[in-house]
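Please check our next protein.
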Amino acid sequence: MTKTTYENELRKREFLEQLKGGEGFAKDSLAKFAEAIGQWQTFTDNDDFVNFDKTKATAYRDWLRSRKTKTAAGQLSLRTQDNYLRRLKRFFEWLSEQPGYRNKVLKNEVNYLRLSKGDARIARSGTTRRMPTLEEAKKVIEGIEVKNEIDMRDRAMICFALITGCRIFAYVSLRMKSFDKVEKRIDQNPGDGVHTKNSKKILTTFFPIGWDEPEQYFMEWFEHLEKKGFQPDDPIFPATLSGIGSAGYSKEEVGRTFWSSTNSARKVFEKRCADANVHYYHPHSFRHLVVSILSKTRLTEEEKKAISLNLGHEDVSTTFGAYGYGSMSDEDAVKIVQKLKDVQNSEKGGLILTEEEKATLERVMRRMM
């Protein structure tokens, strides 16, 4: 290892330690920062960080834009480019304040690590989200013919995703003790090994979606595990048993181990959607669906805040913006705008826009500004 490589790695480690210890960043976030810095090192052939300047910053930005990938698009998306640049910019901003780098790594030159305003706007606008309708969710769930434990587990897990809005990495790490059967509360506690976003402790319950069967199916599964002798630290959604079960060697029973990752759980959704002849909707789309269902009801500000907290959001606008209304199509927006004529022509003002329709109109107006 050369001296330059050693110094670069030392600075990188110090920065990541600052993020972890000083700012509480999670492991996954640290890995993304490390990857962004690694991209810069690849581009510069691990040149000394002290040699950073605006010329290199501009060349790096162009390099990201032209870099070939194995994706269908053949290049990095604007969102990925933006993420690399923003994280790298934060690193060099920090570095500019460290001894030996002050007056060498200049903050005004670090600002060149950015997309154009137009590209940044596109990168951060997100993409159109696909989520199932409630009818499609019903078709997937009711289409599971329960013949064994695996069928029962899969049905319960999809139901749980629908009525709680929990993230997949949380519910595959839930323990039996995480669920209070009497109070019907789910304690997503990182202290118990539950994986949550930013290691946040989240207390949630079942959302009312106008369909009772999902809660019933989940409760049947939970009580089945209790009768089977599952203990407080055992998983609620265990991995498929690998080895000899009660009926000999079989893939029709669950074990008592957690899935090693979310990949197997995602395949459950993929398989069950295919079995029901429904487009594959990834697990997170069920989180959007439950918010979409709730956003169509008349909610008080207090109720909106409660729903947000149950989902682990601190900001209500995150829940009822990006989640609740963000998935509405442009065709729906056109219909709402057309409805305005009826509202204006109604002498009694009997036609009133819903909160969802108002939010969509605001979104359309923002696009036009």
Residues 256 and 325 are 39 Å apart (CA to CA). Residues 134-289 form a domain with the hpI Integrase; Chain A fold (CATH 1.10.443.10).
